[in-house]
Amino acid sequence: MHCTRKHLLFDKSYFISFNQDSMNIGEVKSHLLTQSTQHTKYSIPLTLQTEIDWKVSSENLLLEAFSIIWKNEQRYFYADPNVLLRVKNYLGGRVSFKRIDIFYKQIGKIENRSSTSIYTIQGFDDDKVYACKEVKKSKQHSNKLFQNEVETLKQLNHQNIVKLVEVFESENSYLIVLELLKGGSLSQCLKYCRLTLNEVEIILKQILETLCYLHEKGFVHRDLKPDNILFRELGQFSNLKLIDFGISCKIPDLEKDSEMSFGTPGYIAPEILNNTNKKRLSQKIDIFSCGAILYYMLTGSRLISGVSAQEIYQNNKKYTLNNQILQKVKAENYRELLSKMINEDPDQRIDARQALNYFQLMTVQTKGSLSTSLHCAQDPIQKLPNFRKLITKS
């Protein structure tokens, strides 16, 4: 791919190439009569600290150039719009872009909080609709949350993990463009519906398979909860996505970042909150959270509850598994699985692969292949005509 740097007296042509860690811009130098060599002049690292700005033609609104900061100076490189789109597509998610408004327009809001907003955006070039997560820089640890989410999603590729498209940075915010999930959250579903065992199977299988993938790739989510499990389409439980990797980390880094709080009370593994037990943190913290979700799906009640956030936190901290908790679960096989997932002692808790193996053996013993139920399930969402209004208001 070729581009041009414009100078006062003459323009200079360059070639653009990529490797795993950098974008290289260089000159083609001719030697003798026929030989030529490529000499790299600019090597731009593919990290989120690298900012790429864009210039759009005032006549037809097509991309005209991109710019980099080199030796504290902004340098523009002009190219054909199709070349620039190829550059942008390759760099998407690897570096930070400027000026999101020249690529997308905002068309709706999904969630608005003091420090984070999520809204829908539509691309000018293809009319596709995406979700945009805006992390305000005024939020405490905003840069780390942004870095965690993007760096984690860059390294993951799984059908049940939300897809990263690209990232932007403005003066006041970090902006993460993601695939749009239109089916609402598991939290919204559980608020209005009571799941059948067949539906619980469909959802749990996907969560456990995703956790196996995540943990085997060396990551821990750290904030698994119904709010962070979304469905691609309304009424289709067989296609869920795990979202919100802002506090995710590599497994060896679990005990770092002590100044940050992790997880949501009611779903936090007790060993995170109870420092007196001196248990080392592991990927099993996600399994406790998954068990709390499973308990909610099976019983319609939360595993750890309270009348206030502080009470939930304290109950979470002193949580102990007992028979009274398990007796609320009517399905005996699930009761046994849960006892292995929500044990307060991580040494007695199973990991993701063990949980998935137990679950698969359990479902094979109780009935036929789960793949059949994926096509036959009638979700309770489809039986509630006002559910679409409910999830847009909640």
Comma- or semicolon-separated keywords:
alpha+beta; Transferase(Phosphotransferase), domain 1; Phosphorylase Kinase, domain 1; 4-stranded antiparallel beta sheet; 12 helices; 17 strands; PH-domain like; 394 residues; 9-stranded mixed beta sheet; 26% strand
Plain-language structure description:
Helix content is 31%, strand content 26%. The chain has 394 residues and is α+β, with helices and mostly antiparallel strands. It has three domains: 1-93, Roll (PH-domain like); 99-180, Phosphorylase Kinase, domain 1, CATH 3.30.200.20; 186-393, Orthogonal Bundle (Transferase(Phosphotransferase), domain 1), CATH 1.10.510. The longest helix is centred in the middle third of the chain and has 20 residues, at 197-216. The relative contact order is 0.09. It comes from Paramecium tetraurelia. Pfam families: Pkinase (PF00069). Residues 104-361 form the Protein kinase domain. This is Protein kinase domain-containing protein. One of its GO terms (molecular function) is protein serine/threonine kinase activity.
